[in-house]
Amino acid sequence: MRLSEQGDRDVGAEAGPVTAAVPDTGQRPDTTAETATATATATTGATAKGATAAAKSPAGTRRSGTGRRALRTVGLPALLLVVVATLWEFLPGLLGVKDFVLPPLSKVLAQFGSGSLLDQLWSNGLVTLKETLLGLLAGSAAGIVAGVLLGESSVVRATFYPYLVAFQSLPKIALAPLFVIWFGFGTTPKVLVAATLTFFPLLVNTMSGVMSVDRDRAQLFRSLSASRRQTWTKLLLPSALPSVLAGFEVATVLALLGAILGEFVSSQDGLGVLLQQQQTNYDTAGVFATLIVLAAMGVVLNQIVVQLRKWLVFW
Amino acid sequence: MLRRTDRTATASAASAASAGTAPEAARPVPQPQPQPQHGDGGDGGGSPQLSMPTPLGLTARNVTQVFGARGKEPVVALEDFSLDVAPGEFVAVVGPSGCGKTTLLRTFAGLAEPTTGEVSVGGEPLRKPRRDVSMMFQAPTLLPWKTVLGNCLLPREIDHRVDDRDRARAHELLAWAGLDGFADRRPHELSGGMQQRVAICRALMADPAVLLLDEPFGALDAMTREQMNVDMRRIWSASGVTTLLITHDIPEAVFLAQRVVVLSSRPGRTLDVIDVPLPRERDIAVIQTPEFAAACGRIRSYFIREGSHAAL
Q1: Chain B stretch 125-164, residues whose beta carbon is closer than 8 A to a beta carbon of chain A
Q2: Using a CB cutoff of 8 Å and minimum separation of 24, what contacts does A68-72 make?
Q3: How far is the alpha carbon of B202 from chain A, nearest alpha carbon, in Å?
Q4: A99 touching chain B per CB within 8 A
Q5: Which phi and psi (to 5°) does residue B125 adopt?
Q6: Does ipTM come in above 0.90?
Q7: Residue B187 in contact with partner chain A when CB distance is under 8 A
Q8: Could you give the strand order of the β-sheet that contains B259-263, starting from the edge strand earlier in sequence?
């Protein structure tokens, strides 16, 4: 048990610097590429370390268990990546699949060598990222405020909750045309779609976090004659923080989804638009290249939140 | 029967009690040397840093607590309960689980208004929680995001802006509890016993005139618990704070208190009030005396009659 815990910690330490580096590079053009490289380096490093440790294992040292663990958690996924990449590269050719259906991996990666596509990915990626972040921010802020209000007052909860559930049952993407009618073709409708998607996880998690505050702690604050405001700032909000951040983690992925969905409905730029252009041109390799960028964006955003959570909720 | 002694005698008793805490070093979690201040302060001073404001008495007059959810049979938690606790006295209330002990304590804390009857602190009827009445729970109930020092300072933080004097006082109390090296740690880094010590410090930080203890050591293992009992007794001796302890542990009640109130199972009614025939200064050796055993036996007999083995 002790050994396995150490193994986890080792892997965590390996992953740490990668995500820590992300906010620094956020402003520069080659963010995703750089991060991808960093991840690759970290992965290779860890694998090499794991392999070395595993090679030592016959000696029966204590480190060998840790090494085997690292080999499992980093080495196995890396192995899978190699297998899938190999299959992707050679299977389409062997099976006679046409390039516009499934281009081999090398052709997809070659897309990143073309300057014009890189420019497009960069400029459209920035648009999508901006929509995602604005939507995440607006939706989360609204969700947290609503969660606090609903958690604070049973009257507010009883009045609004049924309608909020009804709203949640509505497929939010169906609102996108309405947002376009109201706000035109700019950034706003996409931000709104992203915000409506992120609103609910934050609302529910904030509310449940506030309401599930430890009973004894609540009594402690009452016995100390704490004011309503003190109880909120010193007890309820910190108590709800783990739950709020868990909601935020879910919301990050949803915000990206919302931005792309918004762009699909109507837009001039953004990765969603780029995808549609590539689709029209049967540029399958380009579609895959865009998808890789989107996946990287999702992973990076998610990791930022995960690390933020680890940092803020240390207990 | 209980001879009130002067302050010096009390202080030396406190030192004796702390000498009895020597096995502290054997505990799994490394601890700083226990309470070096006792040596520094000299016998004349005793534990001056523990001195509290004038203790207040507690009174309950014919208190009945009935809880009823709508559509359900109302539950009588406490029936016609009366009790007088003199200023500076240590009283324990024992009873089986579910006899309304916690309700009683919550009533004295101003957290639950009595259905009928009246509760007063220092002669004033109690309407809402008072800042000079400190409560300790079964769980340490610390805030995990605050440091040990921050947790300690919570009562002051809620009362006013924390200043250097408050911080100095908190450090004093932590040192007194043998936690001076742990001020900047987080609660989860501490053992259960140490966490409960932090909770004691926090309770004392409010400069209480009354201390309410709700089975504060119930969640600890037997050895830590015994140690905490010795410490609690020392705190009471040194501070002179009026203390009301709720427990289902009979030896704990007899060791700590001057008077033990025996409650019946639900609805809680007073079965007996026992004056503990032990000297005011006690160390852990007192539990081997025949007087101690006799007092425990007398309390236990009520629960055997009641058929509530939970209380044994």
Answers
A1: 128-131, 133-135, 137-139, 141, 143-145, 154-155, 157-158
A2: A68/A7, A69/A3, A69/A4, A69/A6, A69/A7, A69/A8, A69/A10, A69/A11, A70/A7, A70/A10, A70/A11, A70/A14, A70/A46, A71/A47
A3: 11
A4: no
A5: -60, 140
A6: no
A7: yes
A8: B133-136, B210-214, B242-247, B90-94, B259-263, B270-275
Assess contact for B257 and B90: CB atoms under 8 A: yes
Burial (CB < 10 A; 0-12, 13-18, 19+), residue B117, is: middle
- Taking contacts as CB-CB distances below 8 angstroms, the residues of chain A near B186 are 314-315
Helix (H, G, I), strand (E, B) or coil at A185: coil
Contact yes or no for B141 and A214 at CB 8 A: yes
CA distance linking residue B106 with residue A219, whole number of Å: 9
A224 touching B (Cβ < 8 Å): yes
Q: Which residues of chain B make contact with A234, given a CB cutoff of 8 A?
A: 143, 154, 157-158
**In whole angstroms, what is the distance from residue A254 CA to residue A136 CA?**
8
pLDDT digits (tens, 9 = 90+) for B33-61: 444 333 333 333 334 456 677 888 888 88
The answer to whether the CB of B223 falls within 8 A of the CB of B284 is no
CA distances from A296 to A42, A129, A300, B43, B66 (A): 15, 12, 6, 70, 61
pTM for this one?
0.71
B293 near A CB under 8 A:
no
Residue of B277, B271, B308 lying closest to B293 (CA atoms): B277
- A216 to chain B, closest Cα gap in Å: 6
Q: pLDDT of B271-306, one tens digit each?
A: 889 898 888 878 888 888 888 888 898 988 888 765
